UniProtKB/TrEMBL annotation, chain A:
The proteasome is a multicatalytic proteinase complex which is characterized by its ability to cleave peptides with Arg, Phe, Tyr, Leu, and Glu adjacent to the leaving group at neutral or slightly basic pH. The proteasome has an ATP-dependent proteolytic activity. One of its GO terms (biological process) is ubiquitin-dependent protein catabolic process. InterPro entries: Ntn_hydrolases_N (IPR029055), Proteasome_alpha (IPR050115), Proteasome_alpha-type (IPR023332), Proteasome_asu_N (IPR000426), Proteasome_sua/b (IPR001353). The 26S proteasome consists of a 20S proteasome core and two 19S regulatory subunits. Residues 8-30 form the Proteasome alpha-type subunits domain. This is Proteasome subunit alpha type.
UniProtKB/TrEMBL annotation, chain B:
This is Proteasome subunit alpha type. SUPFAM superfamilies: N-terminal nucleophile aminohydrolases (Ntn hydrolases). Residues 9-31 form the Proteasome alpha-type subunits domain. It comes from Cyanidiococcus yangmingshanensis. Belongs to the peptidase T1A family.
Length: 269, 270
């Protein structure tokens, strides 16, 4: 693996002879190492979901946070390096706040996405900083065009997506996403579908136990950012595990169901 | 891969090679070809038009968020080829500069070329920009203008040009067509071509005289050039067309429907 970029990959400000910027490509690889992150634009809103991998049992359940509110009508989920993502969220919050101060209006999600994309891009222009090792999923409600999902990647691109997945399970999830009928999918349906996709993309033997963190910006909660209620998430997760077992033809519940009983259900506050 | 030759002189923008080359700038040119799309622009007598290939990075991306054409000020806009993020960064810079000019001076900048300096940053950016606009210099030229700005910062005006992965092929196609037009127009006027159209020492041949092209002529040439370098037939969804015409003097990116109308109108011409 080593040696592909050899010599041209030590600095963000160096082009390779083929014209590639390897440091930015490596940053994109960093995003692929995290837990699976999914964003879906449904007919009545946007759902953001993260598979939070619990590295140790000593971690307080439900304390891992990778989905954040940016303004009332926008939420961001982080794929990749968490701390890098939190910097982006912090910037997003400043941008949204600043827009409100100047224009007395909510920032349109498309504009926020453009600004964050430029922000990420700037970090690929100077040698004394490194690109962000995270992709952020911006789910928002635009006054004129309704729900929208924008993805800002380490290279600075900010495209609008119908649905997006990144992280360890992205290949399996992207295949599953392509099969969904987006014209009829509601946020409630999406919660179940996503829980199933995440569960199926995991390697039960090798992967660490996980918590599902989900949030939506939907008609259900008045077009504002809200975390999906714990009860919905845990029932979706249990259904997903059952369905997965039925598909696998496995009779015994297995370790993951016990894990589900322990997390996502406890401490519903 | 010719790693051996450059031996360390190609790692930094601030280092010349012993032959006096700036390898990082040359590599930035290669970056323009990486995404695999081409942009073609043609200036007519009363319009400038540009046609860009549109490639969606993923099936689930919404097509209207993928764009290589951007308005910078009312009568001027940019179409870029190369790394889309670098292109967008250039657009942001230009928009800021054009706005600032309007604010400070009270009138719109007559041309975008004065802002070239702002497109040069500490790193060469992997995008070639095509400036399209209606230049309006009081007491000077007023009319459509097309400029190409490459990663080295070289800016020059063109009658017709191409940028991106198949720029050389598209440009050769355009030159061939324009020479044929010139000969037709010349023959109509009963003129003889005094010098050969085959390449002179510089390889560019004799300069073309200004042949009047109508708006549709220009569009046809641009789309034709792009079609000639793409393997599959271009559908309206694969194209972005940007126009500045005399009647409106306004940089305008055509909607999908307008692109379809243009394509069907041009196919009926033949």
């Amino acid at each position: 693996m080593a040696g592909v970029g050899s010599g041209y990959d030590l600095s963000t400000t160096t082009f390779s002879p083929e014209g590639r910027v390897y440091q930015v490509e490596y940053a994109v690889k960093a995003v692929e190492q995290s837990g699976t992150v999914i964003g879906v634009r449904c007919v009545d809103g946007v759902v953001l979901a993260v598979e939070n991998l619990r590295s140790t049992k000593l971690l307080q359940p439900n304390s891992l946070r990778r989905v954040f509110a940016v303004d009332r009508h926008i939420g961001i989920a982080i794929a990749g390096i968490g701390p890098d993502g939190r910097q982006m969220v912090s910037r997003a919050r400043s941008e949204a706040q600043n827009f409100r101060n100047v224009y007395a209006e909510e920032i349109p999600p498309s504009l926020l996405a453009e600004r964050l994309a430029s922000y990420a891009h700037v970090y690929s222009l100077y040698w004394h900083v490194r690109p962000f090792g995270c992709a952020i999923l911006i789910g928002g409600w635009d006054e004129t065009s309704g729900p929208c999902l924008y993805i800002v990647e380490p290279d600075g691109s900010g495209y609008k997506y119908r649905a997006y997945a990144n992280g360890k399970g992205r290949t399996a999830v992207r295949t599953a996403l392509n099969k969904l009928n987006f014209d009829q999918l509601t946020c409630a349906d999406a919660v179940s579908e996503i829980a199933l996709m995440i569960h199926q993309s995991r390697d039960i033997a090798k992967d660490k136990p996980y918590e599902l963190e989900m949030a939506w910006i939907s008609e259900v909660c008045d077009r504002q950012f809200a975390r999906v209620p714990m009860s919905l998430i845990s029932s979706a997760r249990q259904r997903a595990e059952l369905e997965h077992q039925q598909m696998e033809g496995d009779a015994s519940p297995g370790a993951d169901a016990a894990e589900a009983a322990g997390t996502n259900v406890m401490e519903e506050s | 891969m010719s790693r051996g030759n450059s031996a360390g002189y190609d790692r930094h923008i601030t280092i010349f090679s012993p032959e006096g080359r700036l390898y990082q700038v040359e590599y930035a040119f290669k970056a323009v070809k990486l995404p695999g799309t081409t942009a073609v622009a043609v200036r007519g007598a009363q319009c400038v038009c540009a046609v860009v290939q549109r490639k969606l990075p993923d099936r689930l991306v919404e097509p209207d968020s993928v764009t290589s054409a951007a308005r910078v000020s009312d009568a001027h806009g940019v179409v870029f080829a190369g790394l889309p993020t670098d292109g967008r960064a250039q657009v942001q810079r230009l928009r800021a500069e054009a706005s600032e000019f309007r604010y400070q001076n009270g009138y719109e900048a007559p041309t975008l070329t004065r802002f070239i300096r702002s497109t040069l940053t500490c790193v060469p950016l992997g995008a070639t920009l095509l400036f399209l606009g209606w230049d309006d210099h009081e007491g000077g030229y007023s009319g459509p203008r097309l400029y190409k700005v490459d990663p080295a910062g070289y800016c020059i005006g063109y009658r017709a040009c191409a940028a991106g992965s198949k720029d050389v092929e598209a440009q050769n196609w355009l030159e061939k067509r324009l020479r044929e037009r010139q000969e037709e127009v010349g023959a109509d006027r009963g003129e003889r071509l005094l010098f050969s159209t085959a390449g002179s020492a510089g390889g560019y041949g004799a300069p073309l005289r200004d042949i009047p092209l109508s708006d549709d002529d220009a569009l046809e040439l641009a789309i034709g050039a792009l079609q000639s370098v793409t393997s599959s037939e271009l559908k309206p969804a694969d194209l972005e067309i940007a126009l500045v015409t005399k009647d409106k003097r306004h940089f305008h990116v055509l909607s999908d429907q307008e692109v379809e109308e243009v394509l069907s109108r041009l196919s009926e011409r033949d």
